[in-house]
Amino acid sequence: MYVHEAGNADAPPILLLHGGGVAGWMWRPTLERLEDSARVIVPDLPGHGRSAAEPYRSHEETARKVAEVLEERAPQGALVAGFSLGAQLTILLAATRPELVTDAVVVSAQAKPMPFPQLTLGLLAATAPLARQRWFAKLQAKQLFVPDELLTAYLRDSAGTTRETLVASVGENIRFTLPAGWADFKNPALVMVGERERPLMRDSARRIHDALPGSELTTVPGCGHGIPLQRPDLLALTLAERV
Hints:
Rossmann fold, 44% helix
């Protein structure tokens, strides 16, 4: 799994986990604003970006791989922040490897399984080739709030995503439920959701927050499902204050 490091090597570590269908490049606007306040560890998750040759199989397997990255690069633990699919992995890491997560920032995580997942995944598998079409990828990029300066990276990675990775990662995403260990996580945790996200996502944020006593919940005004790309200034400030 490809891993990029940036920032101040002597500063506290932050691990950033990207969402499905994108890659570590989605954190560039946040990294620019963090400057030297942290040592930032940014993996490209299996099946994505520079890790595209390694298929995405499951959240459980991916969380184990991410834990190995932390064991090697931040053995005393790190602030872990994730977006969407990466936010679900953040929850799973906090639940299963709490000694590696000093603080959890959960951004736009779905925590209510969708009904009829096989129907959704069947349609997704049938339409997967569309992801390689530039016009379709541009429409998807707009929904994810990908800025013009990152559009080339999104189009490249969208074209390189395999049907196997797409179906597996989306399947894990839409079936996700909170692991039992989340309620026992003792370190700080912040749950973030966009004001303009779908009711499913806002309900999920409330469910995640309610399941963990002492966690914080914040709704970001004016944002949809794209807080890291719509408000990188806010996210960078939030992370810098918590590290």
